[in-house]
Amino acid sequence: MSISGLEKLDVWCKAQDFAVRVHKEVLPFLPSDEKWALASQIRRASQSIPANIAEGHGRFYFQDNVRFCYIARGSLEETLSHINYAFKVGYVPGALYKTLVTDGENLNRLINGYIGFLKKSKQGASEPGANYAVRESQSDYIIESPEPSSSDSNIE
Q1: Which CATH number is 35's domain given?
Q2: Could you tell me if residue 29 is inside a domain?
Q3: What is the pLDDT of residues 73-106, one digit of tens each?
Q4: Radius of gyration of the chain from Cα atoms?
Q5: How many CB atoms lie within 10 A of CB 18?
Q6: d(C-alpha 19, C-alpha 34), whole Å
């Protein structure tokens, strides 16, 4: 796998473009006192969207890929929530907010479509070990009553 493989994946390209756009167009509007709080949160959440799509793409078993797409979708919602907050407190202009929400909704549809494709195609389902799960056997927990101490026997 390489970047050239990811560049053929439309959902990753759109997620990367969205993250870059958020970085370039939203972060400059935030005041300096938000540099280590809101700006950092928005930056990390938006970067997590294409990063998780890429990590899932690098997995050979479709359920791993789907799981990382769910995480990417959650990061998208987190990013949109932060942008919504930034708009409501007056950091981000309305026109920018509206276009980012629209782009976020479109990206959400792309991620959902990609998840549907992965589930339908079941890529990697026949890979060796795909049907195995690693689990620890559960131990029985034995709860014993504590033996009375010598100080307990003096209580009447």
Answers
A1: 1.20.1440.60
A2: yes
A3: 999 999 999 999 999 999 999 999 999 999 999 9
A4: 24
A5: 21
A6: 18
In order of 4, 5, 57, 98, the CA distances from 1 in angstroms are: 8, 6, 9, 36
On whether residue 97 sits in a domain, the answer given is yes
Q: Is residue 92 part of a domain?
A: yes
Structural domain span for residue 23: 3-121
The number of domains in the chain is 1
**Contact of 17 with 33, CB cutoff 8 Å:** no
Closest CA to 110 of 76, 142, 79, 139: 76
The SS3 assignment for 148 reads coil
Q: Please count the residues of the chain.
A: 156
Quote the pTM value: 0.76
Please report whether residue 131 resides in a domain.
Answer: no
Q: Which residue has the tokens 């920018």?
A: 96
Decide: residue 85, CB within 10 A, 0-12 exposed, 13-18 middle, 19+ buried: middle
Q: Is 136 in contact with 115 (CB distance < 8 Å)? A: no
